[in-house]
Every structure is written in structure tokens, then in C-alpha cells.
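Next comes the chain:
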Amino acid sequence: MPVKAKYRFGKNAVVRIAPIPAGSIAADGTVSKPAPGDFEVLCLPNSVSIGLQNGSIDLENFCTGGKTIKVRDGTQNGTFEISESNWIEDDAALEILEDAVQSTAETGGWVYVEVLPLGIGSGKPSYDLIVDVMEWSMTIPSKGFITVQTQNISVLEGPLKGTQPV
């Protein structure tokens, strides 16, 4: 296969989100994945970013020659960012994000995110995240489209890599 054929465009990607109802959170804090029919496609942003960062501690001693080195501490921090989105009054996915940030319950802002970078299909990669929507804002210009920004999203779990079932 030519190298050029291995590059992928994001146009086939699908990002789906679903609210996490209080009853789907177990006593130990684990979350059940919502049913497929509970997910809504997040299609209005022009980009979504996910990532994972390993935690570390700084170590400086005689063995390192006085240099500061980073040593993994076994923690990982996920990242999830949504670009500015055009607002449409009846967009169900944006409503899930807005409802999440407006909830005053401890787990009310939790949302399940499913990122399918190559689109929907058996055996294709998927990344699941559980996030807490901490901040949401709307910009209403005198000229142009109304936009929504979801700037502060805390990743509680993930991204967990998997493959879509057959």
C-alpha cells in the first residue's frame, strides 16, 4: 500500500455524546456506557481534540548528577477539547453539553463521549471518555452566527482506546 493511502482525513470522523444518568453510576464510581440510542452526534464544531498525558514527578539527586529528571508516577490525565461551534436551536448534542454545565448535582455535568476517528464501522478504532462539563458560553454577535464555546472540560476517565464491535 502506498504511504499516501495511509493518511486519513477527519471528514469521516464521528463524535457522539450522551448524558450520564445518575442511575448508571455504581457505588464504586464506575460508569455504565449509555445505550446506543442515547448518543447524539456532535457535528457543529470544526474540530475535536483528544489526548493522554502521563503524570510525572521531578527527581534531583546525586545519582542524576544534580540534574532534574522526570519520572513517571503512574497517573494519566486525559484531554478533550471542542472547538467553537455554530449554535442551532434544536441541536441535541449541544443541548446535552448545556444541560450538563447547568446541573448543580455533583455528577450532573458528566457526559459520555465516543470518538470514532475513521467513522462508524466494525473493527474501526474508537475512543471513549467520561468528561465533566465545567464551563459553557454563548456569543451572540450583531452580525454573523451565534456560537457556543465549551472551554473547560475535565476528563474523568479516558480516552480509552478500543475497536467498534462487529
